[in-house]
Amino acid sequence: MNKTRLSLYILLALTTGLLLCAVLRQPGDDKRKVTLELMMSGLKNMHYSPLNVDDSLSERVYKMFLKRSDSKNFFTKEDMAKISQYEYKVGDQITAGTFEFYDLVNSTFNKRIAEDSEYTKEVLSKPFDFTKDENIELDPGKQDYAKDMDALRDRWRRDLKYQVMVRLSETMLEQEKRQEKKDTTLKKVKTFEEMEKDARDKTLKANRNSFTTFAKQTDETRLSNFFECIANAFDPHTDFFAPEERKNFDIGISGQLEGIGAQLQDKSGNITIDRVIPGSPAWKSGEIKDGDVIVKVAQDTGEAVDIQGMLLEKAIQLIRGKKGTVVRLSIRKPDGSVKQVVLIRDVIHLEEKYAHDAVIDEDGKKMGYIRLPEFYTDFDRTGSRTCAADVKQLLQELNAEHVQGIIMDLRDNGGGSLPDVVKMVGLFVAAGPMVQVRGRDQHPQLMSDFDTSVVYRGPLIVLVNGASASASEIFAAAIQDYRRGIIMGSQTYGKGTVQQVFNLDDYVNSQYKDLTPLGSVKITTSKFYRISGGTTQRDGVTPDIPVPDPYQYVYEKEKDEDYPINSDRINKAPYNTWNNPPDIQKLQQDFEQRTENDSVFQLMREEAVQFKKQRDNTLVSLNLDEYRKQQKELTDKDKKYDAINKPIPGAVVYAPDGKTLAPKYNEGKSNTPAMVAGNNTIGIYPIGQEAQQMKADTNEVSIENARLRLLTKDVGFFQALQVINEMR
After folding, report:
1. What's the whole-model pTM score?
2. Contact, 718 vs 678, CB < 8 A?
3. Alpha-carbon Rg of the chain, whole angstroms?
4. CA–CA dist 314, 295 (Å, integer)
5. Residue 161: HSE in the Cβ half-sphere, 13 Å Cα cutoff
6. Nearest CA to 374 among 300, 275, 451, 244?
7. Maximum Cα–Cα distance for the chain, whole Å?
């Protein structure tokens, strides 16, 4: 879960006077000291579960900062003998507003970067011996600190050899494929020696870029990482934003930018997809998933730039661009394979995060489908759309189509507005409590919907996955507790907290105005509970009917984060379950019998295990032949999983009239086994306002057809259709 993901928001009154205490300026006060004091004052006064500034906090900050500084690849045991004296003194320094620990780590890191830069030139000036049997451990968490500088240099050498080997292997494979195809554009067949030297040259260039980036990195950026560790010591969603980071945060929430529509995170030098924005070019491609790593970026037909080790902000600049321009990405998947993805940049409209609906017509039997990417609302009260009002309208449209069941798709929905969750659950159940909220040192309070009307009363399925978080979990939990519908998918993320973002400049004493901008702090202020008394915090929501997900074992969830807030229970709220609940046990049994031997489901289960196996296998051979053999085995294994992403037999996308095939979205036949969809023809088409927009806007036609086309390849969606048919 990243900084730009919408969390769960409620309006909290009368907090600004409590947040930050006035700090009188003292001689020698600098920007970083003032920022630290203001941030700590806010954390002390506003955090849901504030920590004492003691040895425990010291240890947390100490470990996180060293881990995020990639210390095991740059520090020796001799270095750590000096640094470790501060493990339980960081708290004292935070109280005093001093930075001895930060300064020592920073200066040691700078020294090592300079040494590594020179050593890299030396090592890459000569060919590597790839016949030697040696390995490299890619997970720093599985390594100890190097004994001395000789051992550290050997670690650097292995890392450089690995980088060269990967590039060399890719070049060799590409040339071999072109030779097999008798590609006439291949003017010259390179020798092994030439390809090896090219790989070393590219590795040197990439590392020079990385070292240059480190040299250009400002102290404000590095200090922001330290402040972030202090905030994260309270919980994973309490955070610090430097001024530029706050801008990116705001862009991420608004979606108003030109690019590919993927939120990125730097994980140990890897530019990692943290979240794919629904409706964006990256999302529409179906090729980019959370956790993927971008290794190269090319502008249209230009030369690809290796972004491994590049500063995140610089990598983002390369990936973003004007609407209509082409960007080519080299994507490394969790299993280690590399895929080329070509995207056309676009404006990431707010429209793309709004709710959309469609009708699924299976030989005359109609079902409704609603996709909700986020729980958006009119936070600024400017008359903007809200998700609760939009979903109500979509339900009315689907009722007019006389659908016999509705699938609410909350997969990859990271959350949003709490009041809208409450209203939205109320569209499916009568008035009653929807969620319980408890602030710091407060008794739980019920948040209820008082509208006794129910907009939709028919069969309901809610689809979730490991990226369904916060407000999505509250919706799914309420539907489950009321026994109003069936939850299908994989275990959700497990986030049951709410945050508020405060601009420190708004609370600084006037005598410090010359030091602004200082940044912002995001603070966890409340916790949420199910009406049954449980919590989504860490636990998430367990589906009534689990559906295989290739990424189910590699989702990074709340419980995997550093120092998440604990899970607990409170008393059950008074509520009555739905008067006509689905027979969950029978539906579960029927689903298991139907899918037990399903070939596609079996492939999805196997791919999930394969992804996890490859993620956990971090010891890699530096013998080129052995490495290439392993890569070929991975590629061969991946081929059999292609069937998962092929269109379901009989599934087609119709134009808004529900009769005419949508052009360009139904070509080709599928070899996917027909066990999931059966032999019926299944038509998917837009209705209502969406259909009207498509008639008026050709761009909307392309966007909507691409969105619906993804459903024709969605095995989980088609299984939901099977289940909802059995619920009627």
Report:
1. 0.79
2. no
3. 27
4. 13
5. 24
6. 275
7. 80
Separation CA 643–CA 713 (nearest Å): 10
Bridge partners, residue 487, by sequence? 462
How many whole angstroms separate alpha carbon 600 and alpha carbon 675? 8
Residue with tokens 């708290």: 91
Q: Alpha-carbon distance 204 to 121, whole Å?
A: 7
CA distance 259 to 590: 44
Q: 367 with 403: CB under 8 angstroms?
A: yes
- Whether the per-residue pLDDT at 577 is higher than 70: the answer is yes
Q: Which two tokens stand for residue 419?
A: 């009041």
Residue 503, strand partner residues:
520
CA distance 536 to 721: 27
Local structure of residue 279 (DSSP, 8 states) = T
- Which of 171-180, 537-546, 640-649 bottoms out in mean pLDDT, i.e. has the lowest? 640-649
Tokens of 170: 């890719």
Question: Which CATH number is 351-499+529-595+647-727's, of 3.40.50.410, 3.90.226.10, 3.30.365.10, 3.90.79.10?
Answer: 3.90.226.10
pLDDT one-digit tens code per residue, 131-186: 999 999 999 999 999 999 999 999 999 999 999 999 999 999 999 988 888 888 88
**Cis status, amide bond into 581, omega within 30 of 0:** no
Residue 646 tokens, joined = 């092929």
Per the CB < 8 A criterion, the answer to whether 417 and 471 are in contact is yes
Q: How far apart are CA 520 and CA 501, in angstroms?
A: 7
Question: Is the domain 257-347 a CATH 3.10.20.30 member?
Answer: no
Ordered by start, the domain boundaries in the chain are 51-233, 257-347, 351-499+529-595+647-727
- Residue 688 C-alpha from the chain's centroid: 31
Q: Map residue 178 onto helix, strand or coil.
A: helix
C-beta of residue 444 within 8 angstroms of C-beta of residue 431: no
Query: 136-161 burial, b if ≥16 CB within 10 A, otherwise e?
Result: beeeeeeeebbeeeeebbebbbbbbb
Q: What is the DSSP letter of 504?
A: G
pLDDT bin (cut points 50, 70, 90) of residue 2 is very low
How far, in whole angstroms, is CA 514 from its chain's centroid?
A: 37
